[in-house]
Each structure stands twice: as C-alpha cells, then as structure tokens.
Write a structure and sequence with these properties.
The structure holds 2 protein chains of 2 kinds. By secondary structure, chain A is an alpha+beta fold. In chain A, 24% of the residues lie in helices and 16% in strands. In chain A, the strands form 5 sheets. A 6-stranded antiparallel sheet of chain A has the order 2-16-15-18-19-20. Chain A has a 5-stranded mixed sheet with strand order 1-6-12-7-10, covered by helices on one side. Helix content of chain B is 25%, strand content 20%. The longest helix of chain B has 14 residues. The chains are: A alpha+beta, B alpha+beta.
Chain lengths: 585, 218
C-alpha cells in the first residue's frame, strides 16, 4: 500500500529470541515511494490503475523443536512461540486502523491487530507428497490451537497422515495429560479427549499477563488474512511442503548423508527447514480467498497447487546443485556458515514458490537479509559514562539521493538501533532524527511526538564508504589510518571530517578515545587502540540483538561526508555500525 | 529551430505550455515530430531523452485601445489525472477522498471506479487521501510514467498494479523478474506464458507488454 505513514503509526522495531528456539520479528520499516502516473487529456480515455501492496509487518516462526519429530503434534515447548505471537500482535497494532475496513463509515478503532497467515514447511527429505501433507498438518495444528478449535485436533487424531508416519495417539494424549496435570497413563477418548485437548490448548497457547500467564485465542473471523471466509481457510492457513527451504545442502553433502546409515546428522542439518511461519500483515489488510494462490488447509494434493506459482526455474532454486560444490559446501540464504565460526554464506534465493518469495524474501524469520545497522548515541562521548543511546526516537531516512528515492520511517529501539534494508551497497542516505528532546537535560520528560519528519535534524550518511578495520594488523600508524579516523569521527571524536583531520587533531582524537576507554594515552593508533575502537564501534547490547549469531551481514556505514568509495565489508558477521554522536557540532 | 530534450516528469502539454503554446497539438501534429508521435503514441507518456521539435510561434495581432486596460488570457490546456484504485483483492476503492494539487485540496468521488482530478500542466505531485474507513494516502508523480516499451515504464506499471518491481527507475533484475512472472501468472487466462519476458523480442513478451498497458490503463 502506498500510503505515507505518519511516523506515529509505525510500529517500534522489536525483535525477540532467535535461533533454534524460533524467531519473532517485526519487519522493521515501512517504505513509501510515489506512484508514477501519466495525465490524461479531457478527450482521451486513458487512466492509471493503482493497487495496494500486500505488506508484511512482522513474522513469527514456530520451530521444529515445538513439534514432535516428523509429526504434527504441538509439544508444550510451543508455549514460547505463542507468547511471542501475542507480543508481536500487540506491538504491531495500528492505533488508527478501523476494525472493519470494508465499511467506509467505520471509525478508527484504536489497536487494530495485524492479521495472520500461517505457512507450514517441511525439509526436503522424503517425497514432495509426504512433505506437503506434513507441513499442512503442522499448520493446521497451530491454527486449531490458536482459534481453540478442538475439532481440528480431533481430525488430526482421527485421520493420520495418509502416507503413514505422522499419527496422533496415546503418546500425544499422554504428553498433553502430563502438561495439564492429568494422568498420562489414562486412555482418553470421546468427551474426555475433547476436554483434554481444550485444557492442553489453554496451557500452551498463553501470553504473559500482568499477573502471570493467561490463555489467549484468536478469532478466525477477525484475526486472519482472509478472515476465515473460506471453508477450508484458504489464505489463512497453508502447507508449502518442502518447496521453500531456507537451507539447501550441496550435492556433495547431501550424497554423503544419503550414504550414511545414521540419518541423525542430516535431520539436524535440515532442522531449520521444518517450521511453521506466521506472517503478520499490515493492520486492515484483507484478501479474498479466491484471489489467493496457495492451497487450502485441506487440499488433498497441495503440491500441484503450489507448483502453479513456482518460479520459471523453481525446481532448480530449491534443489541440491552440483554447481554449489564449487563454491560452498553449504548453500544457504544467509544462515551461519558450515562451521560455528564461519561467516554466513552468500545469499541465494532458495524458495521455489515465487509467491512465497514475494512475502518472505526479506523476512527476518526466513534467513536474514542484509541490513544497514546504525546505533545512534547521544553525544559527546564522556569518559567513564556508559553509552547514552538515542532511544525510542522517530527517524526518517531517504535511501539514495534521487528525487523520488524511497523514504523509510520508523523509531529507534531501546538501544538507539535502526535497521534498514540494503537497496544499494553504496549509497548516500539522508538520516533525519527527531531531536525534540535531545537537548533536554536528563530527567526531563521528552515532549510528546510532534512535528513532521521534515523538521527533523538531518545527517548525511555515506553508506558503504566505511573502510574495514583489521584489528590483527600490527599498526602504530601515526597519524592514524583513515579507517581509524572514520570510526573516531562517527563516535564523536575529532574536529572536521576524517580526511581533513590533521596530524595534530588526529592525535588529540586518538588520545581522547584512549582516555575514555582507559587505554594508554599515547595518541598513536596502536594495536590495543584499534582493537578497542573496532569493539566499541561494533557494539550492540546483546539483549537487543535481533539476529542469530553471525547471521546479520551488514555493510558498514560511515557518517562522514566525502569519504572515498570503497566496497563495504559485505556479509561481515554481526557487523553493526555505531553512528557517532550526532549533536556535537 | 530548437529541440527540447524531454526531462523526467515532463509531458507534451506541459512542454507546450512552457514554450507558450496553448495547444500541445501544435507540437504533436507538427511534421518534424511525426517520428516521435509514431513512436510514443501518447503525448502524455514520453521517455526522458526524447526530442521534441519546437516550432516557431505564430504572431497574433490583437487590437486594443490605448488608455484602457485590456486583458489577454493565455488559454492553458485542461489536463486530468484519472486514477483507478484497487484493494488487495482487485476490488475498486469507491469512496470520497481528498485530492491535493497545486490548486489546493478538493473532494473527489469516483465515476465508474475512476477518480478524475483536474490538474495544471505544471502539476507534478498530486496526492489522494482517504480518511474514512481504512486510512489511505496515495502519492503520485504526474508525468513521470515512462512508455511501456521501456523497462522503467514496465516497472512503474507493475508497481502501480501491486507487483513490486523495484524502486523508481532502478532495475533490480531479480525483483523485476519476480513482478513480471507474477503478473503473467495471474493472466494465464489471457494467454500469457510465465517466462519472465516482457521485452518485444518474443511473442509472449510482446503480448505481456500489451496486457500490462491495457490493465494499467495507459
């Protein structure tokens, strides 16, 4: 949708735990750009057609660990996923969105929630047909629990997977009974099983309330993308089978696993692909099921429907490929590399389904796309004082210098961090910050949001110009190298622009940094100083990290105007730039 | 005689007004512009870099008495901006909104699902805003739409139709292919094959281009 969001309308960037335990993240920004149109003469009949975009505002992953292995049963650990979903829905609610957008007279109802659509996924082991059905059953299990439809789970009990394997029986009732405090050895049938399912759902599908956990449930007619308009929930729930992996093995590795007797290694490696992803769409979004290309949640042959939406080279995208072996052992979107310390492997699209690619390609839940990561601090740096992040403040960024460049609105997080999508690895960005309260002494309440982004204080960022800093390089460079000057400048040290730091002021800046960081005040950018500088510059407080370790490749950003161009340290693991104190001049 | 090189955001009625012509047809129908007319077809959809021949202006003599104020009004061409708005399910958005042009804001209601907004030939930014129901504001760059034969023109139309093809005038091949294939996929009934081609070198590409122009409306 092309509406220009008021900064107030844009949800705060939040992101919760990642890794094997699942992901929940807001898609950080809302992007606005003009639509290009042609005028008409009175005499002609031409017109322009403008359609809303389907906008994803957030996502949650229910990871493999929250299901019984190779089954669709939802294990008690899934509680963590449900809590995240509840939290994410609250955080992304739109205060100005009417509850019923199809009614033109409906008044805005504060807090309309983003509608959800669930996508089940399987790993590539086994047949397409088996995996399609399993991913569908997993999505149904989550859906049934979210809307408290006990009959959906009864169906899962009564109708095992048509190809065997996934079936619900005594193991499942025993697990539920254990979680609800009932007798696991008892046999549950009929009304007793129904009651057990309902109780179990209330145990697992909970949110954090002021006085502890409380059950929550979603309304099938309000809280899903197609509003439950289709009998079999087309648009609300679907299984994608194995068609959209986030991780694809190389042929070499895949063959080795096939030859091995023990499949545990392979199953572990593929774990990341076995997931249910819930996408949250912009509040007010609603689709008609008949316009939705994905299968229903009871499609007997969902793979056929999915194939109708494949990329023209869809099957190549998802398959192990010999050509991968030349470059990588593992082909992944942007999850960590083969070893624990390896950098993330190059991003390559792996979704066979083009429609899903459009929704999920840049989702933090589906591998991590490259981002510019900026941490904004209040300046100037003060010795012995902790960083003072420019937290929870509005910003607007123009990406590029074209007159119609996209503009991004948002709010810094608790640590002053801004994450921006990378459209160009080298670009000039104009960052505008709402400094309304920045000059207030600490302890004074910041004023309420007011004013327009055009009144914000502007900073020019030369994204991609930051030179990489090699901390191993033995250097006693005096005066300091440009990469050192750039970082000092961004952190608020020194006078003028980095290229123009003269020898004397460079030494002063280095010494000031050394003093603040309790290093030897030599004024020379020696090894320990370079190391500390790199550390301080990259530092993002861990509790705020939105990325799994090493998964966020971010080109460096330099706040220095006129820095000579150099390639960004592409895909450097966990790299994040700390933009300097903006108010020192 | 001078030739004008078309810049981003320019259309022929605007160029005509800029050079003091009250009717763009003086330029459009001029024999020296016949190649341009044949190539573009629509005077409102030119490509930056196109060359427009600017003929000599005719001198007109008007009599006026001295000692008396006489008003000469240059007649500017009336232009319209006609827009059809669709929601996520391709249903038309039919409600009263506010159109903002250089002349100010005015209420506008759709006729046959099309909003018609009176604009000046100098208007480049127009917005359409709806406060009732689901809040919506559409910003439009008037005159910036390129011909459908150009890749940027294809990108702009795909974006307008809800197939995100990349940001303004920059072509990301992957994103562009995504949009073309999605567009083709939704129009298999119209005989399009999903192959990502929209250039004129293939029959399917040609057909896709035609369909895109038709569905967009210009």
């Amino acid at each position: 949708m092309s509406s220009r969001p008021n900064p107030e309308e844009v949800g705060q960037v939040i992101s919760l735990d990642l890794g094997k335990d699942g992901v929940a993240a807001s898609h950080p920004v809302e992007i606005d750009f003009p639509r290009f149109v042609a005028p008409s003469l009175s005499s002609d009949q031409t017109h322009n057609t403008i359609k809303e975009f389907l906008i994803v505002v957030g996502c949650i992953t229910v990871p493999d660990a929250h299901f019984k292995f190779d089954h669709s049963f939802v294990v008690p650990e899934a509680k963590a996923s449900m809590k995240r979903l509840a939290k994410m829905r609250d955080a992304l609610a739109d205060p100005d969105q009417p509850a019923n957008p199809s009614d033109p007279n409906s008044k805005p109802t504060p807090g309309a929630k983003p509608p959800l659509s669930l996508f089940g996924h399987a790993d590539p082991v086994g047949s397409d047909v088996y995996n399609s059905e399993l991913s569908q059953r997993r999505a149904r299990a989550i859906y049934g629990m979210l809307i408290r439809d006990v009959s959906e789970w009864e169906k899962l009990f009564d109708h095992p997977h048509s190809k065997g394997g996934d079936h619900w029986g005594h193991d499942e009732t025993a697990q539920m009974a254990t979680a609800t405090g009932d007798d696991p050895d008892k046999t549950f049938t009929g009304a007793a099983r129904k009651a057990l399912i309902a109780k179990y759902m209330d145990t697992v599908c909970v949110r954090d309330g002021p006085s502890g956990e409380v059950p929550f449930q979603l309304d099938p007619k309000e809280d899903f993308l197609a509003r439950g308009a289709h009998r079999d929930r087309k648009g609300d729930v679907q299984g994608c089978g194995e068609f959209n992996p986030t991780f694809v093995m190389s042929k070499k590795r895949s063959d080795a696993f096939d030859a091995a007797k023990d499949k545990e290694g392979r199953d572990d490696a593929n774990e990341v692909d076995r997931r249910v992803v819930g996408f949250l769409f912009k509040p007010g979004s609603r689709i008609k099921p008949e316009k939705w290309p994905c299968p229903t949640m009871r499609d007997p042959n969902p793979g056929v429907t999915c194939r109708g939406r494949f990329w023209s080279d869809g099957d190549q995208r998802r398959k192990a490929d010999l050509s991968f072996d030349k470059k990588f052992d593992t082909q992944v979107r942007l999850v960590p590399g083969p070893g624990p310390d390896d950098p993330p492997v190059q991003h390559t699209p792996t979704f066979a389904c083009r429609f899903y690619h459009g929704i999920a390609q840049n989702s933090p839940c589906e591998g991590v796309s490259k981002q510019w990561v900026l941490r904004i601090l209040r300046g100037p740096p003060i010795s012995g004082k902790a960083d003072r992040p420019f937290d929870n403040q509005r910003f607007a960024v123009t990406m590029g210098d074209a007159p119609d460049a996209p503009e991004i609105h948002g709010r810094t997080d608790d640590q002053g961090v801004i994450r921006l999508p990378v459209f160009d690895e080298e670009t000039t960005m104009l960052l505008k910050l709402d400094v309304g309260d920045a000059l207030q002494p600490p302890g004074v309440d910041p004023p309420k949001d007011q004013g327009d982004a055009k009144d914000f204080t502007p900073f020019t960022l030369l994204a991609g110009d930051l030179l990489p800093i090699d901390v191993e390089k033995p250097s006693d460079a005096d005066p300091a190298d440009l990469e050192v000057k750039q970082r000092l400048f961004n952190l608020g040290y020194g006078k003028g622009e980095p290229e123009e730091f003269d020898d004397q002021s460079t030494r002063v800046a280095v010494r000031a940094f050394q003093r603040n960081e309790k290093l030897d005040k030599t004024g020379v950018a020696d090894g320990p100083t370079r190391k500390k500088l790199a550390e301080v510059y990259q530092f993002i407080p861990p509790e705020d990290s939105t990325s799994s370790p090493g998964a966020s490749g971010s080109p460096g950003a330099s706040g220095s105007p006129g820095t000579s161009a150099s390639p960004p340290p592409a895909s450097s693991p966990g790299a994040s730039s700390t933009a300097g104190a903006p108010f020192r001049r | 005689m001078p030739t004008h090189i078309v810049q981003q955001g320019e259309h022929l009625p605007g160029i005509a007004a800029q050079f003091g012509f009250s009717d763009h047809r003086t330029l459009w129908d001029h024999p020296n512009n016949s190649a341009l007319k044949n190539l573009r077809g629509n005077p409102n959809v030119l490509l930056p870099g196109d060359e427009v021949f600017i003929p000599e202006r005719e001198t007109r003599t008007e009599s006026a008495s001295t000692e008396q104020r006489t008003r000469f009004v240059a007649s500017a061409e009336a232009l319209k901006l006609r827009v059809k708005l669709l929601d996520l399910s391709d249903d038309p958005n039919d409600r009263t909104g506010k159109a903002t042009t250089s002349a100010g804001a005015a209420d506008v209601s759709p006729q046959n699902h099309i909003y018609e907004i009176d604009i000046q030939s100098t208007d480049t930014n127009v917005s359409l805003k709806f406060d009732s129901g689901s809040p919506l504001e559409v910003h439009m760059a008037v005159g910036s739409l390129d011909p459908v034969k150009s890749q940027t023109g294809q990108q702009e139309r795909l974006n307008n139709l809800g197939y995100f093809a990349g940001f303004s005038k920059k072509i990301d091949p992957q994103q562009f292919q995504w949009a073309v294939e999605e567009f083709q996929c939704d129009r298999k009934k119209q005989g399009l094959v999903v192959d990502g081609h929209i250039d004129e070198s293939t029959a399917n590409g040609k057909k896709t281009q035609k369909q895109l122009e038709k569905d967009h409306g210009v």
